[in-house]
Structure formats: structure tokens, C-alpha cells
Amino acid sequence: MKNFLKGKLGTVIIIIATLVLAGVAIFTAVRLYQLRQQAVAPTAPESKPEAAVPILKCEPVTIKVPGPSPSPEVPTCIGIKAYDKTWKSLTKADLSKLKAGDTVRLTVEGSSSSPDSGTPSVLFSIAKFKFQGSAGWTSTTLKKPNTNIFYFDYILPKNVTNFTVKAQVGYGQETRETWVACTDLAFSLGVIPTPVGCNKSCNLSVNPQITCEEDLICRSASGGITGASGFCRNPDCPGRADCICPTATPTSTSTATGTPTATATATGGGTTPAATAAGGGGQTTTTESLPDSGTSWPTIIGAGVGILVILGSLLLAL
Q1: Can you give the pTM of this predicted structure?
Q2: Domain limits for position 138
Q3: Neighbouring C-beta atoms of residue 133, cutoff 10 Å
Q4: Please, which residues bridge with residue 106 across strands?
């Protein structure tokens, strides 16, 4: 019996190992069949290590705190400015040097931008000005090119030295504008002395000039017709201090001498007097013939002969 088992031991071990391997193969095949529908990523294991700790991701949270309401958009006027006709800015010192008849270009501009938004919501369409001494307003829609600046060319009147300019800018419908007032612009012209009269001192080299009245010139002290300083004189007689030029008196002369004599000349039925002037001057006066007076006999005889001829013709005809 021992010899039998000893001879068959190797065979028994091989059979047992074969059965174990067969069972492992069968179990593996069944397991693979069961997991055939489940996708498995090679980088994502199904089980987590016990020591692994999950990482939580934080999301940013925005918290809005209520603040003050934005400032309302209030239309305003930037202000009145003065320029010359070439758009050169004029200061009050420049304005004081102007005189009556000069032109000042006055401008005004409106603003409707909110301090918070910076975007204008009101479009200004018109502006109007009011000047010193004027009863009404002067409207304008003229604008400086490529800007929203309204302007008006104002000619300085005579006999006015202090000016106050008012202005407003308007927006809205044409018949129902809403007007926004601007800060007044005030300026003064230089004091212009009143022109002086005859023989008064004048000076054209100072500012302001001391001028003469109309029709008078400033004759320089050196004797020239006009100069920087001198006295007001009549340009027709600048040498006279009273400015009254002398008037020329006409005179007449006679060269004819002698005593005229009259002679009568008989002509036909009357006489014709003739006047002749003779003297040392050698001047001769023309003789004027007077009309004849009395009866001309030849004329009467001719008329009688004509009458007799007419009567004779009538008798022959009968």
C-alpha cells in the first residue's frame, strides 16, 4: 500500500493543482463577464485610500452694499466769455481798451453732464443775450464750428462805458424751451475824454487821447499841421488862435477915360443920333441906330399906284 501511494503521489498532486487552476480560471471568466458593461478609467481607481482626504473648492461670493443714489443731471451754464472776431480771447483789460463801434464776440455754453455719468442728456439748441440798456433779449443759434458754443457779435454803442451782459441757454421744444441762466459778464471801457475846442491843449500820444472837436486838428507846438501834442486849430488857417479864417474882399478897377459925344445923322425922313466916346484910353463905344420917324413918300405913291391898277382891272372885267 505504501508503495502504491508513493508511486501515485506525484500524480495526485498534479491533479489537485490542475483542479485549483481550473477553478481560478472559471472564477475569473465569470467575474469578467459580470463587469463587461462597466467603464473603468485607468487613472481613476474605484476605491480610495483610507488616508486620502477630500479637497473642497471655494467659490467667490460678491456682496453688494447699497450706496448713495447717483447725482441727478442738472443742466447748467458754463458762463459768458468774450472774444474778438478771430476767436482770440479777450480779458477785462483787453475789453477796457475797446471803444464805441468795436465788435465783441460774446459766447455762452450749456452743460448737462452728471458728475457720475459724464454723459450729457440735454441738448441745448438756442441761446439769448441781453445787453446794457436794452429792453429785450437777442436770440442766436450760431455756433463755433465743431463745438456747442453759441456766439453773438455785439457792436459797442456810443456814449456807454459800463456794460453788463446777461445770457441764457435753452433746450427742449422750439415753442417751449427751458432756459438756464448764466453768470453775468460785466466790463468797463476806458474813460474817453470829451473832445476839446479851439485853441485848447490836445495830445494824440497819450492813452486815452485828448482829441479836438470835429472840423479841428491838433496843431503841434513846433508849427506842423498835426502832431503828438499842441493846440486845436482850424485846418484852413492853423496859425490863428481864434480858428476864424479872414474873408477875402473883392475890388474893382476902371480903365476907360474920356467924354462921350453924340451926333445926329439925317436919314430919309428923320435923324439918327450916334454916340461916340473918345479919350486918351483909345476905347470906342459902338453906335446904336434909332428907328426912323415921320412919313415915307415913296411908299405912299407905290401903294396908290397899286390901288389904281386893281380898280382898272375890275372895270375892264365888267
Answers
A1: 0.41
A2: 76-188
A3: 10
A4: 82, 152
